[in-house]
Records
---
Amino acid sequence: VQLVESGGGLVQPGGSLRLSCAASGFTFRAYAMRWYRQAPGKERELVASISSGSHIIDYEDSVKGRFAISRDNGKNTVYLQMNSLKPEDTAVYYCHALGMGSWGQGTQVTVSS
């Protein structure tokens, strides 16, 4: 199982980023996927989740209306579109397949002026 996150970077408050997570080594289309984030000194928290067929989507309250999770089962990739970014969104973002033990290396998102 391999998960490779990308798309992070430095962005000003109010800006946008699109994260991608390329998955391999398992039947991607059969698994729900999640995005987590971990800020310095804090525990990893669930940000967004999407079911295998994209029918069920859920978000952590602080990102509702700003973030959008999606997936392309043909490309084995899950995305996180992040808009109206705030400094408190600064964290390392990870994708995760529900039921799998593996984690990727994460991608750093820094929101700062």
Note: The radius of gyration is 13 Å.
---
Amino acid sequence: QVQLVESGGGLVKAGQSLRLSCTGSGRALANFNTAWFRQTPGKEREFVGTINKLGTTSSCAPSVEGRFAISRDNAKNTVYLLMNNLKPEDTGVYYCTIPGQPYWGQGTQVTVSS
């Protein structure tokens, strides 16, 4: 079993940046590909991006590609979501998860003001 904890959310202005962290405990997060999703107001949970367990391959959804990037530090059991040039429509709760496994964090709130 893996426990996931997201952190790093907050209130920022449009154009600013945030870095979210997803830290795993229990089984090492390094054993798993990891993904980020977000729940924005009025919409279903949306895929943001994913990274493989070695950190050699990552990809992001078209809606955030070029602004967001995913990385990981397996020595710290942590996956990161770097969000640049944030827009008000990026507001939502961001979650990390392990694809194909029933493990989700509690989420971290990101609010972007215009």
Note: The longest strand covers residues 18-26.
